[in-house]
Amino acid sequence: MRASAVMVMALVCAACGSSKPAATAGGGGTAATLPEGAACVLKSPALDVGASSELTIDGVTYTKTHQPDAPGPLELPATDAGAATGTCANNDQFRFGTGIYDTTGPIGGNPTGHADMFGMVVPPQEPNGIHQRLYARAFAIESPCNDKRVMFVSLDLGAVSGLLHQEILKKIADDPQLAGIYTRDNLMVSATHTHTAGGGFGVPVLPDLSSTLPTLVNNPAVWVESLIFSNANYDDDNVNAIVDGTVQAIRRAHVNLEAHPQTAGIRMAIDELLNANINRTPPGYKQNSPSERAQYVDADGHEVNVSKRSLQLNFVRDNGSVAGILNWFPVHPTSMGNHALLLSGDNKGYASLGFEKLMGTRYQADVGQLDGSDNFVAGFAQADEGDTIPDLFVFDADPDGGNGPGEGVPYFARGGTNEPYEYDQPGFERGQPESTAISGTKQLAMALEQMTRGTALHGPIDYRFFYADFSNDEITDPVVLAELGYGDLPSELYDGDKTTCTTAMGVGFGVGGVNGPGFGAAGFTCVDDAPVPYTDEIRNGYNGLYNGTGYVTVKLDDQNVKVPFPGVEVYTVAAPALCLATALQPGYSCQREKPVLVSAETNPVPFQLLRIGNLAVLGVPFEVTTMSGRRIRKTVLDVLKPIGVDTVVIAGPSNDYLHYLATREEYSAQMYEGSSTYAGPWELAAVQQESRRLALTMAAGEPAPEGIPAGAFERGPASQIFVDPDSDFGAVLTDAADSYTQGDIVDVTFVAGYPGHDLKLMGSYLYVERQNAQGGWDVIATDRDGELLFLWDSDVSLIDTELGTIGPSTVEARWTIPANMAPGTYRIRHDGSYRLSKDQAPQAYKGISKSFAISGTPAACP
Prior knowledge:
Distance between the termini: 43 Å
Oligomer: single chain
Strand content: 15-25%
């Protein structure tokens, strides 16, 4: 079996090879050295999680049948690509700049007039604190050989909406430093897709009533809605934080580039990152052609149903100064869980902040003119993550071999930890930061290794952008049409007109992914034509995860209550009725297998292609499944290879958010990804067609297709101003103990004002400080750092919401003392603000705990 697998890989994967490309390259780039502290990451126990067949936590064994990853087919640069021509034929020199800025929005959610988190939708996620701050990370790259420039931005955000894209471009156009240099054509804005960031920025999840109803009527309606769902009604404060922070990161990257006129090489490293992601929908992936799936088999003979490729660009100047790294690896940032109530960049944010901490990144607000000096930025951008998750043990059988409903590894352990998950467990609202650290550490460790190697990018900079109309996009490209059918699958699957449909979401949308299950159920179809039978499998296997939660969570009196909801039984009755309704509506009828539940966006679809030497970055607004990504990359690469592009990476979701992109075959099963493929069974074919259309213009040196106009999006009303009751702001309610040792938790609570008065951008609500030899205090940790949690609490009633008042508030600081923290005298400081009147500006206050000692011998690593 192993020999045949290796033979298959050798024959069908032209880019297969060692998972460790050459560590050095001649010319075109300086290799970086590892920073101090990297050794701790590279030997972290987190790297061993999922690497064996057994999962044991605190002496309890949860499974003995986990399947670790083995080396497999790695997509390396194509060996048959041509060479760049013209003035950039031999170019391996670039100018580059990086920039970072805070985009952390308000907490409090709907009771405080702000949006809930955008991500899980159910159960309700009203953010009540910060695990890690959110940032925009920008990378400017210019090729002096043709004077073209691109800007890539990675946002700690669930998605980029058409509204955000529009507002960012507007603000750039009004900026004298940036206007005319960065436009929609050469600026790509991509979200990491963290599910623990604020919403309200223009991606509809539920009906936004605020634009049609008076406030006095809308507030109760939203309040009731938010008892069950996370509500993403428009939040102007969050939009401003995201837009302003993104543009400021872009400005910093621009100034950093301009301050360094000398050129340098950019190295690209490609490696195989194992045991860091799994496919969350195996029954969907199995619908793909057996011959196609056979191309992706690992050394142990197992199918590789998610991409393991970690692709990284290293921005190192010839003098050794490291400006940053930009990494793409496909995995959902959902490690914090669907019960987390803290803002967080999740696993990708953890990796970014961890790398930046090692490199000494400065997080300071701008004062005066930017000097353009290097300030290391680590971007962990998203790739084709549509069906990939970090919950490595989610489908594993329990020690008795059970994997049916109610069996298998308990949810809290599916990320490799024993953190609380259920609502009646103390601390559930803090999510699963240890699981987040495990996933983030794996990505960080790989990125550290990749920073020290790679091969030089070579060729020009180029870019194309246009909007496509998916309301009725007929597939006419003969190359795309010729690749739609597979001889080993039923031909009936490919019958009918090849066109996109009136956009809609199916009933499977309500089940969510197994990494954040909802109350619905998956796999209900109007046409039973899936190539591989799967219904019995999903109903009675996979730990019952495709049957939904079985309940709806309702928040009553600030408590979570489970209301039974038999999703399978309800959908069994509802799906046939929905199928009939779907068939009777001409626009929806071509959705074929999908029982339509709700209509979806009709935004123009942005397609963008950036060329950075021999690397092409395709930006699409979808969550792309693994097999869809493989097909799209091939489509684009086939067009661009003759002009010297040998590698394609998909950056999604970028420039807007239009849900999922499953293959035609995956769509037939109507699992979550297929049900969320909004334009119907031929959406992937349409994406391939339009991506190919864009690539053809680049290959020919022609302008981008004309496309259709951009959408026009209206901003909502200004965010409501809330006032606090007169209190002893900053007073310490629960103080620190006299002494602690490494590993202990320091827990201090302060009387607080509402944090939404001042978002503390590029600052912090909390500071851990250590006394220095001169008697002053040095900052050791802020609310940017995952070990210091910022928790805000206030019992806001509907009456408070209507009146714009906040009840008595507290801020809790929970600091888990790192194992390597030096002995000394410490304290915790809280900086906040309060507002006693809507007519007066917020007033600053400060609270400081008593000093406490940390003793004990520090470990070598955190």
